[in-house]
């Protein structure tokens, strides 16, 4: 497994949400290329896409979201067993997601963490688990919750 962070962090939530969850997408790196139909289609594992999108679109910061991918080698995860709902594989991925959350929001109380959408891609012949979160955490001031900028993605060298 490798963890990759997208360099993208701006733009409307619908654009990134579409990339994560839509069955058919246009490949932005290939202008004029036909649309790609993902087979099997993406699976929503966790989260409320409308809630996450509303928070992303409501942020007034330049960098409004962070997107990470846990990419597994084909020999790491049996895709047939995964698609059949194998409970052992599903629990292993749940454990990896829990670790990701603890690292991404280290030092942030669970109630102050933003919502996260988690989806999968299998169409490339391997399991990719995609995580999308607003780049903000909740801070409470006089009983009112406000979003405060937070970057869950660790800094990368030059």
Give the tally of β-strands.
9
What class would the helix/strand composition place it in? alpha+beta
Order of helices and strands: EHEEEHEHHEEEE
> How would the global form be characterised?
globular
Distance between the termini: 24 Å
How many H/I helices? 4
Beta content comes to 25-35%
Task: Provide the gyration radius in Å.
Answer: 16 Å
Low-confidence stretches: none
Output the strand order for the largest sheet: 1-5-7-6-4
What percent of the residues sit in helical stretches (DSSP H or I)? 25-40%
* Oligomerization category of the chains in this entry: single chain
Mean pLDDT: 92
Largest sheet: 5 strands, antiparallel
Short description:
By secondary structure, this protein is α+β, with helices and mostly antiparallel strands. Helices cover 27% and strands 27% of the residues.
């Amino acid at each position: 497994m490798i963890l990759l962070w997208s360099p993208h962090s701006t733009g409307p939530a619908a654009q990134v949400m579409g990339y994560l969850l839509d069955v058919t997408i246009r490949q932005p790196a290939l202008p004029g290329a036909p649309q790609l139909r993902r087979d099997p289609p993406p699976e929503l594992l966790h989260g409320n896409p409308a809630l996450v999108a509303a928070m992303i679109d409501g942020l007034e910061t330049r960098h409004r979201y962070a997107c990470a991918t846990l990419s597994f080698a084909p020999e790491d995860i049996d895709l047939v067993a995964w698609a059949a709902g194998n409970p052992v594989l599903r629990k292993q991925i749940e454990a990896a997601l829990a670790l990701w959350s603890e690292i991404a929001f280290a030092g942030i109380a669970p109630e102050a963490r933003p919502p996260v959408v988690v989806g999968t891609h299998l169409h490339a012949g391997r399991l990719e688990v995609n995580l999308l979160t607003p780049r903000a955490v909740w801070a409470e001031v006089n009983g009112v919750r406000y979003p405060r900028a937070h970057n869950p993605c660790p800094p990368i060298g030059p």
